[in-house]
Amino acid sequence: MLQEKKIGFIGTGNMGEALVSGLVLSKSTRPENIICSDIDPELLAAIKEKYKVHTTCDNLEVVRRSDIIVYATKPQILGMVLKETAPALDDEKLVISIAAGVPLAAIAIGLQKKLRLIRAMPNICAFVKESATAIAAGEYVHENDVAEARAIFNSVGKTVFIHENVLMDAFTGLSGSGPAYIFTIVDAMADAGVKMGLSRKDALFLSTQTVLGSARLLMESKEHPGQLKDRVASPGGTAIAGIHTLEQGGLRTTLINAVESATNRSRELGEMMVKDFIANSKTEK
Fold first, then answer.
1. Domains, the chain, ranges and CATH?
2. DSSP state, 39?
3. Count of CB atoms within 10 A of residue 259's CB?
4. Whole-prediction pTM value?
5. Could you give the CA distance from residue 39 to residue 259 in angstroms, rounded to a whole number?
6. How far apart are CA 50 and CA 59, in angstroms?
7. How does pLDDT run across 69-105, given as a tens digit for each residue?
8. Which residues lie below 8 Å from residue 8, measured CB to CB, with a gap of 6+?
9. What confidence tens digit (pLDDT) does each residue in 154-208 have?
10. Could you tell me which residues come within 8 angstroms of residue 3 by beta carbon, excluding any fewer than 6 positions away?
């Protein structure tokens, strides 16, 4: 699907490199069909050496030479980069943004063109090719655009297409921010192991491996988590005693509240971003 497409990355920091790595190592496309830009020449030199892709410091060159352009910049500078590259964009190109918290409405305002826009939200697990990525499409996308976007992000994990753009905030609250919740849980479990006498090294390993194994069992068995929980929690046993304590501490409520809080914050940041883009567009006129 992507073999004949020229794919450009504007911004080749951590997430940009993760995507380049995923595409090259999965052989989803050929390295010579990828071009990357960044403000850091040393970073570009390392990317070129490691993945054998084309590199440049000129964002406009990336746009002109690409069929698909992935904007992998920080949200704070996306408006400036969109303004810089807009003259070279047209409806022949697929435009993908992975800038966290920037809704499609803001991107459309920033570009002020009717373009094929897609917003994607990978998470930090893309670095180990296990990202959960949500994809939302703008008004003018073509029939195959979503499939091509999913092919790019499937190279670093798994994707889900969200038909309603407003649900991207919920995805951010659950899966975009979710790794931070899991890291906190793993750290707390390791602390508990240390309290019970395990070494810090062993406690952290056991905590991490337990979460990894549990996630894999869920994915591969396709059983409901409640069913798997019941298989572990035997009558009068240790697991049910621990679960009772978790329920007393309000673990479920706390996690639900965390996702809700992160979702609401994502929505607030998105609304602020739209207002900023509107204000900037009026200033330019």
1. 7-172 (3.40.50.720), 177-249 (1.10.3730.10)
2. S
3. 17
4. 0.90
5. 34
6. 21
7. 999 998 889 989 999 999 999 999 999 999 888 889 8
8. 34, 35, 36, 37, 62, 63, 65, 66, 68, 69, 70
9. 999 999 999 877 899 999 999 999 999 999 999 999 999 999 999 999 999 999 9
10. 28, 29, 30, 33
